[in-house]
Design brief:
The structure is a homodimer of 412-residue chains. Chain A has 412 residues and is an alpha/beta fold. Chain A has 15 helices and 15 strands. In chain A, helix 2 crosses helix 13. Chains A and B meet through strand 14, helix 15 and strand 15 of A and strand 3, helix 3 and helix 14 of B.
Chain lengths: 412, 412
């Protein structure tokens, strides 16, 4: 009787790991809170610490998720533009350059009034994007597709392109930047991006949709502002790489984009599972467990702890942890047979930093018939006592594939 | 007084590591059994867990032994054929392709009757191999050498060869397969292998040795069936790589082949040390300790636990562990001065899987004057508490070389 092939569930609690918080008597939120359900998985399985990328490297959520899915971010991450492009289904090809864009509002002197154009969304963005078809600048095809809300993607296709250019989006500033090449061979691409913005402005400024918005007192989306240029990334589709099907259960567009770029299906979620602080976590978890009936692998991302960390608010993070423990309890009570369950984070977001850090994250792996170690508490220190030791993000799915009895023998 | 250069003994307990066994109240065989002598080495030395290749990768015994000897299997493993060829002393060269072969018995319509030809062995295989000399197929030299028992090696030498071909050996099936190229440039090699089989059949079917076997009611070895094609592997000879002499103490042909391919001498063993379940472990251990008088490094492989794991029999594995503890006791009582002793496995063979897994294996390193840690039990969890942490197979010999005071300083 050979052991059964198991399914795999990753519960990625975004930004959950932390550093010592003065407000919590020098403890991390995870150390401070009682978390019997999270602890159960460590206690009955194995604990460890994980460097999402490598020790001391401060990951983004995108690069961390790539690594946790087993893709070396050094090879597979070429910027946010390409991930977003592939994420929305654009057929990006070697030689192409992709950029993320915001629909924005500029005045007559091209100063930015609103970098999200009053958070415009479909169907208006669809109408606007239609007017940007058939754009060719000096032999470079400019393909525009809408993404979520006020976002869009620009794909440049043609000879002699380079991604080594600066952003046109000034971020918090109001002065629209000219895109610049960082080296001589990138100057042409920068020129194309700047001409693209001019052309957008020409086509959008008097667009009927914008005239309607202005008449209604709304910000007209009269320009597209690009950033995050990147070239074609080599990402082997998930199903080819691992021989299993996979789905992503996430509210955040960025996470969905990364997962889709890797070839995971995006599992549909009801309203309310939106990656916000008060996202409906139990409904989302229910969806993740449902997804496991259809897929061999499910990645669920829960964003809330990251938001509390970015807010620099340990008490808020403690409240989130109470909800996350309820999620763990919900899973524990409905424990699917023959499943490998991973509880971890994509990165730490220490409250004291209000940003991501390169600290290792706690990780727990549980499945029936695995060797139990003596770690018994899901926290930065509790997990460090476990037998997983200190692993890397890129090894996590390999470890789980083996526990799921799905690996091929290398050698004989 | 500079520290003395020490010798190194690896005790590789093949397939010893395991997962939770329901029959052993959820414990692994190592957790379940009292092993005072194995424990002594952890208690007086250091413990850790080791990924033979890398986390989650399920090793073969061949790739694991390569890694444990410090060779990256990703570079040095090109298939079983080349390891077997080099193991039996064939001078394999870049451009050559090597395949393992079985002497087999086929009927007139080339259906396989016995894929081991009644387990034929020398001197008959020697007589048969002599008749296969001077074989040239379309400019490709076909060199055949006998290996152990019913096994042989085919070395192809000439222009335009490729190892990307399928096996002719159908494994458990009776229908002899035609070898096929997996891409266009491999089709010629596949054709050569198929012609080779025809030529073998022509030369062997009426060979006097086979006529004698048939007359005696034995299976005639009237064909050679190749599998496991591989190209020349880059394996730096052990003595050049480490500057020390080394020997292998093993019963299994495969382990001897890998070790010989790396440049270790094969230490002669008396009958009874054959890598079986009831192999004479104490005599083998005595030989390993004797070998340490002649060599700087000795690798001893004990196969029995792997067999019990493949049998899916935890109780049998427990019996083997009792014998392995006696081996550890034997070594402890005769502790050679100035020796670094390693107790570990090449891979886990969990009874529940009846096959290898990618779980990390327990490892203990002991030598006088090393830092003792708090690990005190030789098991999957006991060793995980040690200060070695989670290491990789490829690092093991470097760690031991340094404890043996034999490393060169990198830098100044």
């Amino acid at each position: 009787m050979p052991a059964p092939k198991k399914r795999i569930l990753f519960v990625i609690m975004d930004g959950l790991g932390d550093r010592a918080c003065p407000e919590l008597r020098g403890m991390t939120p995870l150390q401070y809170m009682r978390t019997p359900n999270l602890d159960w998985f460590v206690d009955h399985g194995q604990g460890g610490l994980m460097d999402p990328i490598s020790p001391g490297i401060r990951p983004g959520s995108d690069t961390a998720h790539l690594a946790i899915l087993g893709y070396d971010p050094g090879e597979s991450y070429t910027g946010r533009g390409p991930l977003e492009a592939i994420g929305i289904g654009l057929d990006m090809q070697p030689g192409d350059i992709a950029l993320r864009c915001n629909f924005a509002t500029v005045d007559d002197s091209l100063e930015i009034i609103d970098r999200r154009a009053g958070r415009i969304r479909e169907p208006e963005t669809t109408e606007l994007v239609e007017s940007l078809e058939d754009m060719d600048i000096d032999g470079i095809e400019c393909i525009v597709r809408e993404s979520t809300e006020h976002r869009a993607v620009l794909l440049l296709r043609g000879e002699g392109l380079s991604s080594n250019i600066t952003d046109a989006d000034p971020g918090g500033d109001t002065h629209l930047l000219m895109c610049e090449g960082r080296d001589e061979e990138s100057e042409f691409t920068a020129y194309v991006v700047n001409r693209f913005m001019e052309e957008c402005y020409e086509r959008l400024r008097n667009h009927p949709t914008n005239r309607k918005r202005s008449a209604a007192g709304l910000m007209p989306a009269n320009i597209l502002v690009p950033r995050g240029a990147g070239c074609y990334p080599h990402i082997e589709p998930f199903q080819e790489k691992y021989g299993i099907t996979g789905a992503c259960v996430a509210g955040m567009g960025m996470i969905k984009g990364v997962c889709k770029a890797c070839g995971l299906d995006i599992y549909p979620l009801p309203d309310g599972c939106d990656g916000s602080l008060d996202s409906d976590l139990i409904t989302k978890t229910q969806c993740a467990l449902e997804a496991l009936n259809e897929y061999d692998f499910v990645l669920m991302n829960i964003k809330a702890a990251d938001i509390a960390g970015h807010n620099g608010n340990p008490k808020e993070k403690c409240d989130v942890i109470r909800d996350l423990d309820a999620v763990a309890g919900f899973i524990k009570e409905r424990l699917p047979e023959d499943t490998v369950i991973v509880l971890t984070c994509d990165h730490c977001t220490p409250c004291i930093l209000e940003d991501h850090s390169g600290d290792p994250v706690p990780v727990a792996i549980f499945t029936r018939d695995m060797v139990r170690d003596e770690a018994s508490e899901f926290s930065e220190t509790g997990c460090s006592k476990g037998s997983l030791g200190r692993i890397r993000g890129m090894d996590l799915l390999n470890i789980c594939m083996d526990l799921a009895n799905r690996t091929e023998k290398f050698g004989s």
